[in-house]
């Protein structure tokens, strides 16, 4: 089997048929990484010895029980560098954790190792997952495989680029305000954000704890469903982990959308959308209607409050979570005569400008005299946004809309923080409400990928895959590869 451009499902079938081996898949992934990553900067660290061990482990699992080995057994994967892996560098894209090697492994990562997946490395990201372009990494920006001078989105840009470039068929990122779905849209791959609490956050370096969620990138909806199942499920080490059984997204892939009710939020199709994005999403909606779905315009009137609400709650939680990086217990330490000077210089040299900006915003919002005016009010608006979604889902089964208001932009062209934050305006409300959402390719605008977003009610993750798979099977956009891959 040719590994070039193969999906994880195709690789798994080939492994079970004896047409390829985990070693061959790993060698191909390493060759692609060596050939392409000098231009992309998608990886921060290679986990070569672990990959070799997992490769041998997967070969043994397949030899012992080919049918019983899981669908990710022997499949090369990549991990965003906010996911702890015991003994390996885990930087969160920050100088303050440059030499940090965690003593434990994240639950989601451990589940992947137990399934026989083969991690090839840790991927680049915006520092502490704060950003929409992966230009905020302390270790350099990530290029988009469609045009290396353009951003891949953020904050999980390295994970998105790793899949879009064909280095690995599956990678994992985190989504706090759109950090899986937005880069998936900008790089032309599938990115899934599960219901909050469906995937354990144990071992995830926290940005905003009530919003962070781990999820996969893949080339197809089927691969994303399999990748999600591999890490989903209750974990007692995460107090927010949902104990309910995980509904089966793989079975839902074949259900189609005949008779399903799809809502189109009018606020998501209004001002701020690039014309090409609006056209491609409108065409995708027409395809779903042609497949038997009923289409209805709905309203989420508090959508325009989502951005300001998020940028109070997320920085507030960030301010609290990042207080631990003080140069005393772990991570970077800049020695000075006094403890106060040591702390100030450590954080001043260790944190980048965007992290500092959000820590200051959050500290201010939580400070005496401003807590009620900002943080408490933002939490009330968050509840309002969640209730509006609940009300809409009484009328429709799922929502369909754009993922990002624009296609990938050229690096360095957006300097205004507020303009950068607007890139997540269509994904943030999903995080505030804790809902599942997916982005999948639905065409090109100016020769760059456009993402279609599907949103479902809380704990109805399988429905997201049902709608996304129906659209994917009716089109060929998922088969389109970035120019740097197509020309290989």
TrEMBL record:
<feature type="domain" description="Amidase">
    <location>
        <begin position="31"/>
        <end position="464"/>
    </location>
</feature>
<keyword id="KW-0547">Nucleotide-binding</keyword>
<comment type="function">
    <text>Allows the formation of correctly charged Gln-tRNA(Gln) through the transamidation of misacylated Glu-tRNA(Gln) in organisms which lack glutaminyl-tRNA synthetase. The reaction takes place in the presence of glutamine and ATP through an activated gamma-phospho-Glu-tRNA(Gln).</text>
</comment>
<keyword id="KW-0067">ATP-binding</keyword>
<keyword id="KW-0648">Protein biosynthesis</keyword>
<dbReference type="InterPro" id="IPR036928">
    <property type="entry name" value="AS_sf"/>
</dbReference>
<dbReference type="Pfam" id="PF01425">
    <property type="entry name" value="Amidase"/>
</dbReference>
<feature type="active site" description="Charge relay system">
    <location>
        <position position="155"/>
    </location>
</feature>
<protein>
    <recommendedName>
        <fullName>Glutamyl-tRNA(Gln) amidotransferase subunit A</fullName>
        <ecNumber>6.3.5.7</ecNumber>
    </recommendedName>
</protein>
<dbReference type="InterPro" id="IPR023631">
    <property type="entry name" value="Amidase_dom"/>
</dbReference>
<dbReference type="GO" id="GO:0006412">
    <property type="term" value="P:translation"/>
</dbReference>
<dbReference type="InterPro" id="IPR000120">
    <property type="entry name" value="Amidase"/>
</dbReference>
<keyword id="KW-0436">Ligase</keyword>
<feature type="active site" description="Charge relay system">
    <location>
        <position position="80"/>
    </location>
</feature>
<comment type="similarity">
    <text>Belongs to the amidase family. GatA subfamily.</text>
</comment>
<dbReference type="GO" id="GO:0030956">
    <property type="term" value="C:glutamyl-tRNA(Gln) amidotransferase complex"/>
</dbReference>
<comment type="subunit">
    <text>Heterotrimer of A, B and C subunits.</text>
</comment>
<dbReference type="GO" id="GO:0050567">
    <property type="term" value="F:glutaminyl-tRNA synthase (glutamine-hydrolyzing) activity"/>
</dbReference>
<dbReference type="InterPro" id="IPR004412">
    <property type="entry name" value="GatA"/>
</dbReference>
<feature type="active site" description="Acyl-ester intermediate">
    <location>
        <position position="179"/>
    </location>
</feature>
<dbReference type="InterPro" id="IPR020556">
    <property type="entry name" value="Amidase_CS"/>
</dbReference>
<dbReference type="GO" id="GO:0005524">
    <property type="term" value="F:ATP binding"/>
</dbReference>
